[in-house]
């Protein structure tokens, strides 16, 4: 349940809806579901198994499972250096330097490098822009409490959100203060160590969020023109898939399932030998996907009924939902409850994102918690503030804009987009890809399956047809049938999933167009 709690979050409601809207709806949903089934579930099982086998933090995991360095890690290091030379010859110094560091680190430290990317780099990278969304939610909670979300038209709804995202000169206070407050609140929770208290809140508010989604689905579906929203979400139109859609779907599947950022490995480390890993994996993945689809069902009928553009980006839910609540009696109350629930979802995710790197530094560098926080939090505040003030476009920092676009080779509209894309389309998928390589070619499916068997009551070894048809036929010959889930899993993590991830990368780079 804790893992489901981590998986279900802002990603399902805020990110899933805006990115599905941007990528054309139904066809994107199909690609997303395929990514969850064929890549997400195998990797989640991989991470949980590695975590339980190692019983330690993401960096130590690679020490404990053995083969810290291997031919493959050397090869990857060499490959990174080679690509770095390529970047250098085109004059792209930033990526050349970055890849050189990664390459050298892979050659010297082996797979531990992946643990560091997992445990510290990715979570902090995400946290930097997550705080901005947290800030927006905070503003919406205040506005709902003051009764300022009683909007009647699309224009009124946009008028509230636009100055928050665009942060024009003279209107910096709200986005800046709210972001800083959110980051500091996260740090305070970790400093005081009251995560448990926050979790208690989230136990109440997460079911509330679920119930609110059901109410919204009913209200949305009974609005005139709601069927357009259903069509957008469920009648596939593959011509709507844009250049980056496949990579975006894959990245979002990882993000939503909390993969490729050390979180699932850490959860695995807390599991006992009698916990059923495959069952937990499938349950969490199904729950997470269910909530995302429900969020889509709640949001898109309203989007179309009210005449919003589905591709309006990260501000989508902030504009659409107040208008949807307006169609219900006691609209102010719904707004208050909903945005408080979203704020708590954001806060719990942010706490887990910050706790990982903080714990890691305390354990590995032997620094005091307070020292880590005193170094980390001011840096985070600076970066998050800049992102908050350039979430819409670069008009507040034109020179920085030019610099970032040149160094990151991005044409994306804002720093917010650059961070979101950088994390979800590159960092996380690359970490997941390397995890697949490590688990299937270095640690080895043999060891992984041995770990997985513990607690799974024979399900991993039973012929799949027997399993689904209910004719439970426990295999005790020691060699699983070729249709046993453990064999299928191993085949997926060795071949199918990495190839699918590679294809998504190539598609993202425009190779197939
Ligand atoms: N999986 C979470 C979601 O869907 C996102 C998350 C990211 C949670 C990082 C925790 C840490 O919202």
Give a short summary of the structure.
With 513 residues, the protein is mainly α. The chain is built from 22 helices and no strands.
Question: SSE layout and pairings?
Answer:
Layout: H1 2-7, H2 10-22, H3 26-54, H4 58-64, H5 71-89, H6 93-109, H7 112-145, H8 154-166, H9 173-192, H10 195-221, H11 226-234, H12 245-256, H13 263-269, H14 277-306, H15 316-326, H16 331-365, H17 369-389, H18 398-408, H19 415-443, H20 445-453, H21 464-469, H22 485-508
Helix pairs in contact: 2-12, 2-14, 3-4, 3-12, 3-13, 3-14, 3-19, 3-20, 3-22, 4-7, 5-6, 7-9, 7-16, 7-17, 7-19, 8-15, 9-16, 9-17, 10-14, 10-16, 11-14, 12-19, 12-22, 14-15, 15-16, 16-17, 19-20, 19-22
Q: What labels would you give this structure?
A:
76% helix, binds phenylalanine, Sodium/glucose cotransporter, mainly alpha, 513 residues
Characterise the protein shown here.
There is one protein chain. With 513 residues, the protein is mainly α. The protein has one domain (2-68, 111-455, 483-508): Sodium/glucose cotransporter, CATH 1.20.1730. The chain is built from 22 helices and no strands. The protein has helices at 2-7, 10-22, 26-54, 58-64, 71-89, 93-109, 112-145, 154-166, 173-192, 195-221, 226-234, 245-256, 263-269, 277-306, 316-326, 331-365, 369-389, 398-408, 415-443, 445-453, 464-469, 485-508. The model has no long low-confidence stretch (mean pLDDT 92). Bound molecules: phenylalanine (PHE). Residues 6-7, 9-12, 126, 255-256, 258, 261, 263, 349, 352-353 line the site of phenylalanine.
